[in-house]
Structures are given as C-alpha cells and as structure tokens.
C-alpha cells in the first residue's frame, strides 16, 4: 500500500468515527505523524481527501458484495444474501451521506453520480449473467430493469429513518422483500424455484432460532 493509500484509509477511519465536519487536515496530519505541508503536497484540500475517503469506504463495502455474487453466479438467491452485506454499517453510511450533502454538496453529488454509475454497471452485468444461466427470462429489458431496481432500493434506503413497518419487520426485511418481488417478476421457473428455496431456508432458520430461545 502506498503512502497516499494509507492516508486515504486513515482519513476514512477518522471521518467515519469522528464526523466529516469536525476533522481538519491538521488532525489527519497529526494522527499520521506527518506535517500538514506534506499532506497538502499530496491532496489539494480537505474536500479532495474527503471525496477519496468516502469513495474508498463505498468501494470497500461494494467489494464484499461483488465477491459474494461473483462466487455464486448461478444462484439467484445470493442476491438476497447480499442485502445483509448492504445493510452492514447502514447507519454510518446514512450519517456520512447526510453530512456530505449538508456541508459538501458538490462532493456529495459527485460521489452519488459515480456510485450510481458503478452500481448500474454491476446490476447490468448481474442480470445478463442470470439470463445466461436461465434464471431470468431472456426478453427482459435489462436497462429498464436496472433503473427500476436501483431507484426503488435507493428510495427505500433514503426513507429508512421515516419508514413505519409492521411489528417484527426490520428495514432489512423490507429491502429483501422488495428485491425478491422484483426478481420474481422477471424470473424463469428455475429462478422462481431458487427464490422459493431461499424463502424456505430462511423460514427454517427463523424457526430454529426461535426454538433455541
């Protein structure tokens, strides 16, 4: 790992733990044991380092999801398993996004657009892969499907703090339910069978969990 990468990683940790508004370049330089001048030789200003740090956090989070999906390319149910990884650290992600939008709107918009583009490409490749595996009907409009799924799940994520859910239903449950029903609508018989098997497996896990308590 280069010095630049180590700085971005350390800054990301500081922004996540202490907030993006309170951290100054002086604080980052002090924590890393370097002069502020050296820091400014590598980054134009705090906003540039903040942008790179937020992108680092996003990409690290997405790498885990991509690894799970790429290792299970012929099983549609693993896209539902990936939701649990998406939910990991959702409070932190929401807090950083909210503060970024409030204090650094230009950087927020830049990060949002780049994340949207990358997520769109991943979803596009994923759906095409499921078509090749016979899990999604071949005549589906992939681009439209990607757009609908992305904006639906993003809207739910942004509404997380204001959602009124039935008793016993978590935000993660709501997200999985939305994604499952989306894919059920475009799945082949083979794909639906995998979705049903996923439902049954989760049902058994819940029952086993209750029996232990």
Overall form: elongated
At the fold tier of CATH, the topology name is Tetracycline Repressor, domain 2
Estimate the mean pLDDT confidence. 90
| Overall strand count | 0
Please give the largest β-sheet: none
Q: What assembly state would you assign to the polypeptide chains in this entry? A: single chain
Tally of alpha and pi helices: 10
How would you characterize the overall build of this protein?
- This protein has one domain: Tetracycline Repressor, domain 2 (Orthogonal Bundle).
- It contains 10 helices and no strands.
- Helix 7 packs across helix 8.
Which tags fit this structure?
213 residues, mainly alpha, elongated, 0% strand
Please write out the topology.
Layout: H1 3-18, H2 25-32, H3 36-42, H4 46-70, H5 78-87, H6 90-103, H7 105-132, H8 142-158, H9 171-186, H10 189-212
Helix pairs in contact: 1-4, 2-3, 4-5, 4-7, 5-9, 6-7, 7-8, 8-9
What is the structure about, briefly put?
The chain is mainly α. 77% of the residues lie in helices and 0% in strands.
